[in-house]
Amino acid sequence: MRRGLAIELIPNCSLTPRQAAGFFASLCIVSFAVAGFFVAQGLWPVLPFAGLEMAALGWALGASLKRRRYTQTITVTDREIQVVTRDGKGSRTATFPRHWARVRMVRAPGWLPGRLVIEAHGRTVEVGALLAEDERRGLHARLQRVVGRVSESPRLEAAGSA
After folding, report:
1. 93-98: long-range contacts (C-beta < 8 A, 24 or more apart)?
2. Per-residue model confidence as pLDDT tens digits over 114-126
3. What is the pTM of this model?
4. What is the pLDDT of residues 22-68, one digit of tens each?
5. Mean pLDDT of 69-75
6. For the domain bounded by 4-11+71-161, which CATH number is listed?
7. Where are the domains of the chain?
8. Start-to-end Cα distance in the chain
9. What sign does the dihedral 72-73-74-79 (CA atoms) show?
């Protein structure tokens, strides 16, 4: 008999730190070579903009690499739901009694993406923040099948296979 269901959420980060450094270095060489050509022509204001562009690219690559460390594990057992979030700051665990937990989508105003939350007894944890909107809706449907409504706990064997 199956004792629990685990869902692991991991970002899709295709670049390793070494590949990102190589990519960044190659773009810096090309960008500063082009800027150097224009500086030699007397158009020196091009150089600060090339530097600003490379600084923005470096920041974006750094943010992308930092996201590699973010994972979320959602474990649903007969009695509880446990959400373990790991990132660069450490690990945080939230545990909810399955029978009293509720999974819901919180709509955001305007064009902002919605949030998927698990809540019970006045506590809330967001799950799937790294997912695209359609993936988040799919996770919402799956978690609703597994968790059920408040004061309802479907059998894990039946709910997890759908």
Report:
1. 94/118, 94/123, 94/125, 96/120, 96/121, 96/123, 96/125, 97/121, 98/147, 98/153
2. 899 999 988 999 9
3. 0.70
4. 999 999 999 999 999 999 999 999 999 999 999 999 999 998 888 88
5. 91
6. 2.30.29
7. 4-11+71-161, 17-67
8. 17
9. negative
